[in-house]
Structure formats: C-alpha cells, structure tokens
Amino acid sequence: MADVYCSDCKKNTEVVFDHSAGDTVCSECGLVLEAHSIDETSEWRTFANESGDNDPVRVGGPANPLLTDGGLSTVISKPNGASGDFLSSSLGRWQNRGSNPDRSLIVAFKTIATMSDRLGLVATIKDRANEIYKKVEDQKSIKGRNQDAILAACLYIACRQEDKPRTVKEICSVANGATKKEIGRAKEYIVKLLEVEMGQSMEMGTIHAGDFLRRFCSHLGMNNQAVKAAQEAVQKSEELDIRRSPISVAAAVIYMITQLSDDKKLLRGSKIKPYLLSWEREASK
After folding, report:
1. By three-state DSSP, how is residue 245 classified?
2. pTM for the complete prediction?
3. What does residue 15 show for φ and ψ, rounded to 5 degrees?
4. 84/67: higher pLDDT
5. Fewest beta carbons less than 10 Å away: which of 18, 24, 254, 266?
6. Contacts of 250 (CB under 8 A, 6+ apart)
7. H or E segment at 205?
C-alpha cells in the first residue's frame, strides 16, 4: 500500500491496488482513483504450447540488420512425434524447399557465435565479426575458399579492432580444423579485399604486451602478487624502445618475474617452458 491524494477525502490516504481489475482504490472511502492501469512489472507466466516447457520467454530473438528480413521471418516448427499434425508437416516441407537468401549467412553467424562462446568473447566482438563476414560475403569472392578459415579470420580481425586481441593459436583452437597458416592467409585476403572496397587502409588496432599478459598469467596459475609485478614490468617496457613482438615481450616478462619470485613451483614443474616456447613461435610468425 502507498499514500496517494484522494479527491473525496481531501487528503493523502492509503490506497489498495487491485491487480486483477487494474484499479487503484482509496482504503478509506473506496473511491477508484485510477482504473485499468497497466502493470509494468515482470510477468512470469508460461505461454508455451507444451505443458513440459517451463520457459517463460514469449518473444523471439532480436532483429538482425545484417539479414534480409531482419531475422524476423516465420519458421514453421516440426510436429512432435510420428503422429504429428499433417498440415504443419507439409508446410514445413514447403518452407524448406523455398529459397532462403540468408541461409548461408545464418549458418556462418552461428559458427562465429560458437567460436566466440568457446573463447569467452563479448557480444560486441561477435557482432563485429558478423559485420566483417557480411562485407566479405557481399563481394561474392569467397567461393572455393576454406570457410572455417574465413570465419576464424573474421573473428581474429574483430578482436583486433575491438582492442581485445587473441593470438592466431587461440583462434585456431576453435576454428573447426583450420590451420594457423590457412587463417593467416584468409586474414590477409580479407584485409586486402576490404581495403579495396573502402579505398583506404583497414584499421586493425594496436597490439600491446599487456593485452595478453593477464590471460597468459592465468593459464600458468600465477598468484596475484606475481601478476601485479608482471603488469608493472610490462608498463615500464612500453616506455623503452623494444622492437619485439608484444607476445615475445609478455613471455619474457613472465619468465623474469617467475625467476625472481619466491614461488618456484612453475619453474620446477617445467610448466612455463612449453608456454614460453609456444608464444615465442607464435610471435615469430
């Protein structure tokens, strides 16, 4: 209950909300102060056709401006079981026979979303990768090329442009079999293609050693004190003229911090050596 001014009582009185009728009633004189009001709070009722479905969601997905129909077209669901409704089954077959110009785009966007989820990337990077792929697909020049490598390269470029870079090896780990060499070639091809389309150089963002440091430290299980020391060392290194790959700088800083640290567990277990060698090979390519 809340206090609202009542015109009959000529004062603020407590009111009662009748949610079923949508009325606001004065508790002293019974005057209906507001009728048929709209309840804007959440409504957790289930609107599913099936009794076993407890999902309270009653709306579709968001509009996708990259698709022809905005991603809001009607899709006829399949009937349940072998004794399903004949009409919906027939309509579904006719719908599948129809040409959908966005079918390849939908599959590509789902693949990019899967790779993004496996890498723990934010939605802005996924959306940027979708935009890059849409521009490449509009050029009609990727036929015959490795589709997985093209999608992985779009995701790599999107990470660079959103200042959340990932190494080619990290992208390759979720690229459905595409090799680092194939992804590298696809990246170069996409950059050249879009530069010709835009008539200017493509902005890829600047990579810093600090972009990889925290993630590398997490993989090695370093404690907070060692991570903080590594971050300070990387910040100091940016003031110097070190003409090396950011990945090499990050690997060197981590190695020095672990050498100086009192906790020699990483070095004794030889856990850090494979990572450093892997990062160094990655930086040399």
Report:
1. coil
2. 0.66
3. -120, 160
4. 67
5. 18
6. 209, 210, 212, 213, 216, 234, 279
7. none
